[in-house]
Amino acid sequence: MSGGLDDLVTGAAAALMAASSATHVSISERVIADLVSHFGVDFGFLRHNDHTIHATVLVAEYPVRENVPDPDPIGVVYFAGADSIFAQAENLKLPDVVRPDAANEDYQRRVEEGSAIPQTSLACVPLLSGDVTTGTLGFVKIGDREWLPEELNALKAIASLFAQLQARIVAEDRVLYLAEHDDLTDLLNRRALIAHLDERLVAGARGPVSLLLLDIDRLKVINDHLGHHVGDSFLKAFVEQLKEAVDLPAVIARFGGDEFTVVPTAAMEIEAAEAFAKRLQAMLHKQVVIDGELLARTVSIGVAVGEPGRDRASDLLRRADEATSAAKSSGGSKVAPYNREMSQRYAVRDDIELHLEETIDGNTDALVVHYLPEFDLRTGEVLGAEALIRLQHPTQGLLMPDSFIGVAESINLAGKLGRLVMRLACAQFSQWRSRGVGLNAVLRVNVSPIQLVADGVVETVATTLDEFGLNSDALCLEITESVVVQDIDATQKTLTELKNLGVHIAVDDFGTGYSALTYLKFLPVDTLKVDKGFVRDLGTDSGDLAIVQSIMALADAFGLDVVAEGIESPDAAKILLDLGCHRAQGFLLSPPLDAAAMESLLTKGAVQLDFSNG
C-alpha cells in the first residue's frame, strides 16, 4: 500500500475512533468526503445491513443529496426482489467493482431514480463481523473508473474500521437503551419512570398526576414450581395484555420484579384513577399457554395521586406502594386507593429513622458489616472483600441496606454513615492483617455521592488508613457510574487526589448508564465492575453478552481491571472466563459473610471452584 493510501487509512482510523453513538453519522460523512476527494469519485456511501428486516439501510453519504425523493428508493432496499447489485450486499464478502453495462441495467435504473444520474461505476467493499456481512462501503463515479488492487485493499482496511465502529455503536445504543428500559419486557424501567414523574410533578404542571402500581398476585408460585424461565415468559405475556388493556394515553413501566406502573398522561382525580384501575384489573386475568401450561394470575392495584409543586415522585410512589400493600393484604386481586389511614404504616419507617440517628450518633454497635468475597475464577483465590453495611434493629432484627439507606439519605446522614462504614471495615481489615490474614486481599468500600463531594473526603480517607495502619493500596473505593457523570470536574479533582493518595478507584454497576464511557480517559479509574444485570443471564441473553464484550474491550483499551458482579450460574462464570474476565463476585461463589466467616475464608486463601452444570 502506498504512503498516500497508508495516510488515508490512518486518518480514517483516527476519525472513527473518536465517533460515538451521537456523532457517528456526521463523522462517517466527513471520512467518506475525504475518501471521495482522494479517489476522485463523485459519491460515497455507507450502508448497514439490517438482517432482522433483510434490508440494506443508507447510513451516511457524501455529498448529501439535496432533493431526496420520498420515499427514497435507495434509503432502505429490501434484499428480496432487489436488483442483483443491491441483493449481493446481503452476503458480500469481497470487494466488487460494478461498471456500466447491460448486465446491471436494473441497478443503474434504481440509482438514477434516487440521484438522477444515468450511468455510473461502483466500487463496493463489505463490512464484515466474523462471517456476517454487516454493511457496505461504496464509491460511485459518474461514467466509468478502474480501481487498482492497492486502492481496493485500502478500502478493505477502512471498511474494517467502519465495521468496528458499527459494532461499538450497536453496543453503546444497547447500553443507552438499557439505561432507560427493562431488558425483559422492553418497558421503561424504574429510573425512567421516576424521571417522568419528576417532570410531571414540577410546579405549574397540570395535575393531579395519578399513578397505578400493579403487583401480580402469587407470581412466586410460577417461578418456584415451573422455573424462572416460565415466570419470565408469563411476565412478557402479561405486559402484552397490559398494553392492550390500557385504553387511554399513559406511560407504562416495570417498577420491579412483578410490579408495573401505569401513569395516565392526562390529569386525573383519585376517583377516576380508581375506576380506570378497576377496568384494568377486570381485563388482566386472561389465561396464557406457556410451555404447555395454562397460566393466569390476578393483580393487586394501588392507586395514588400527587399534586405538581407539592408532591415529589417519591411521595407518589410511596403512597401507591402503601395502597398496593393494602390491596394484597386484603387477599389480593383488589384495587385500593391511597387514604390517610395508610400513613400509619410509616410509623415503622419513622422508628427506623429514629434508631438510625441514634446509631450513627453514638451506638455504632448496631452497625454490622458483612463482606462479599471476590474470587479469581481461574484459581479460586480470594482476592478481596466488599464491605456491606447492615443495621441491627432492636425489634425488627438485622435490616438490609434497602430498609435504611433511603432513610439515611432523606435525613442527611448518608455521608456520616458512609464514613462510619469505612472506619469499621478498615478496623476489621487491620485486625485480620495483624493476625497475618488477608495480607494480599483488597478491601472494597462503596462511596456515596454525598461522600464524594464532601469537603475533606481525601483527608478523611488518609486519616482512616493511618489510624488503622493500612497501606493505601489495600483500599479500593467504589463509586457508581451515575456519580461519575454528575459533576465531571469535581469528580476528576477528587478522584485524582484519592489516586495520588494511593487508593484504588472502581466504577461500580458499570454499564447501567452511558455518559461515563466518554469520561473514562479523563478519570484515574483502575477497575470497572460489570453490573449484575448484564451478568445474570449471560448464558441466554445475546444482548448481555454483547455489552459485556464491549465493556471488556473498553477496559482493555484503557488498561483497566474488570470485576463481574452477581454471578449466579456456572454458564455465566464460564463465559466470563472465556472473555478474559477473571475477577468476580456472586452467590454462585459465596453470599455475603459476617466478619468471622470472612476471616475464615481469608485464612483458607482459596476455594475449589467447579463450574460444571452437573
Automatic annotation (TrEMBL):
Domain annotation EAL: ranges = 349-606
Q: Which intervals hold domain GGDEF?
A: 207-340
Pfam families per the record? Answer: EAL, GAF, GGDEF
The terms under GO molecular function for this entry are: cyclic-guanylate-specific phosphodiesterase activity
PANTHER family, per database record: CYCLIC DI-GMP PHOSPHODIESTERASE PDEF, SIGNALING PROTEIN YKOW
| Descriptive protein name | Bifunctional diguanylate cyclase/phosphodiesterase
Q: Species name for this entry? A: Mycobacterium cookii
